[in-house]
Structure formats: structure tokens, C-alpha cells
Amino acid sequence: ENYHAVLTENRKLFNELQELKGNIRVFCRVRPFLPGQGAPNTVVEYVGEDGELVVTNPTRPGKDGLRQFKFNKVYSPAATQADVFSDIRPLVRSVLDGYNVCIFAYGQTGSGKTYTMTGPDGASEEDWGVNYRALNDLFKISQSRKGNISYEVGVQMVEIYNEQVLDLLSSDNTQKKLGILSTTQQNGLAVPDASMYPVTSTSDVITLMDIGLQNRAVGCTALNERSSRSHSIVTVHVRGKDMKTGSVLYGNLHLVDLAGSERVDRSEVTGDRLREAQHINKSLSSLGDVIFSLASKNAHVPYRNSKLTQILQSSLGGRAKTLMFVQLNPDAISYSESMSTLKFAERVSGVELGAAKTSK
Ligand code: ADP
Question: Which of this chain's residues are annotated to bind ATP (predicted)?
């Protein structure tokens, strides 16, 4: 009973804070234990339908080790890709109505960021992540509105590695497969120097994602190593012309798979690894700072502090809508990383609940 009273009280607090903080949403997704991972020892004590999450400290059994979090949604390991997308579909669709939207995945390496955003390697349609589903949805709806609004949908894909922006779709190969560069007229929000392609069919979506993923793997020994240290951004630009009035609207969508958020022990790395770690720390903390100052309605928002926040600027703040996926590895071994992920998420969402004063 006591437990429930605390949950109810926290829920009230959360809802009140939600009212204040505008267009930032936080969804938490706990990935399942993977086959062959041994006897599962989970830190996840409780996942509530209202976005409640209780995490337990494996070294402090009992109620003293419990901490409670509250997000807009929490997905248990059983949630499917379709479940997740159905919750964000309205957000994705709002781009066709002229909104700017940013969806990103945050968490340590191995917590399921790429699974959520892209899907597993060689995913079938059922396993498609947010990127495929969003692109597919956008061009399908744009076609269904053809008689009323004439849309152009253009896509860019870049990677930010050590504060450098690399075009993942630039190759003669891409142009052969997808035809000429899109003539989609931009409202000045395109990522500079990155090629843009039109998307008019599901096969375009697949071709484009394939090329982007392949190019991401070029020049590195292991894709996972590289991708865990770079941010990848799929940007969708939409231009819609109202056939009756002639008025034009623009919307854009950034889909971001962030670099792994794990803390690298600085005493143990040097050279390239140290440089990478510093760049990652800087850009992730810049992202946190930007969202935090938006949530606190600060006059100055520090967009210029990293390449990542510069590129995302148009879809962070103002009328833009932002959604963060907080990815968690449920394994007890990851407890301290999971806690730092959850603390980042709390800071971003502006909601801090503290210890779960449970009598459970
Ligand atoms: P990250 O991008 O955070 O480094 P990945 O997306 O590569 O993590 O996920 C790590 C592993 O866990 C991969 O083998 C991935 O397929 C698997 N995985 C992640 N989330 C899920 C999920 N919801 N269901 C099934 N497998 C998952």
C-alpha cells in the first residue's frame, strides 16, 4: 500500500513537471537478455505501464538499493519493434504537417540503440527499426495525399566521428542505384555538403539504408567498434505544396543513433581512443546541455558547442518535438552504466524522483 502511495505521489509530481517542460519526451527501452548470456541477473525490479521503472542495486539487496524513475514510457524486453513504432508514429507523421522532429537513442554500447533505430543486421520487415519504418511511413502517407498536397521527400545520412561530418550516401554507386540527386527544395536546413536522395518507394528506403550502413562500415576493422564511437544521423526533409492554395510547408526529421555513452577510464586510454572518448563526452554533454536549457527555458541555448547540436538545432527547441530513447542493458554487470544513463535521462526530462521509498 505504502509502495503504491509513493508511486501515485511520484506520478502526480511527474505529470505536473510534464506540463512545464514543453516538447521533450523520454521513452526508456530495456533490451532482453541475449541467448547464451548465462544466468540472467537483472537490475530491473519493476516496469510499470505508466512509464515507471524501478532499478535495484545488485550490491545492495533490499529496499535500500531501489531507485525509482518515471518516463513518458518504459518498454519491457518483450516490446516489439512494431509496438515501439506505433507509439511514435504520430510524431513521425507530424513532419508532414510541417513540424521539425528529432528522435534519438542514448545508452551504453550494447544497450540496443542500433536495434531500436535500425534493427538487427539483415532485419526482415518485422524487425525493422525506427529509421526504416519512419521513411516508409512518410513516403506512403505523402503518396496517399497526392491530390491535395504534393510532397517531396529527400534523405541525407551522415556520421559524426571526432567532430567531423562524413556523408554516408556519397558515392557514384548511390547515384547509380537511386538516380539523380533530389531536387527537393530546402528551407536551409539540409546538412551542409551531404548528398540528398529522393525516396519514392519501399525499395528506395531499403537501398538507401543498405548503402548508408555499408559506408558506415568502410575503413574500420569492426563495424561495432566504429559505430559505437560515432553518431549516425538520418535526416528526412519534407516539402509539401498545397495544391489548392499553393502554399508550401517544410518539415524535417532527424533520426539519431548516438555514440555509446559509456565512461571510458581516462587513465587507461591514450592516443586515438582518448581523442574519440573526449569528442564523444563533449558532444553528448553538449546535447544534454542544449536539451536541459530548452527544458529550463534558458534564454541562451548552447547549440554551437558541438557538431551534433549544430546539425540538430532545427529540430531541438522552438516548435520542434524531441524524443529520446533511453536504452538499458538489464544485466547486473551494467548497473553503474545504467545508472549514469538513467541520470542523464532524468536531467533531460527534468524529472528527478530519487530513492524509491518502497515498503514492498
Ligand atoms: P548498441 O547500438 O546500443 O551498441 P545494439 O543495438 O547493437 O546495441 O544491441 C546489442 C545486441 O542486442 C545486438 O545483438 C542486438 O541485436 C540485441 N538487441 C538489442 N535490443 C534488442 C531487442 N529489443 N530485442 C532483441 N535483441 C536486441
Answer: 107-114
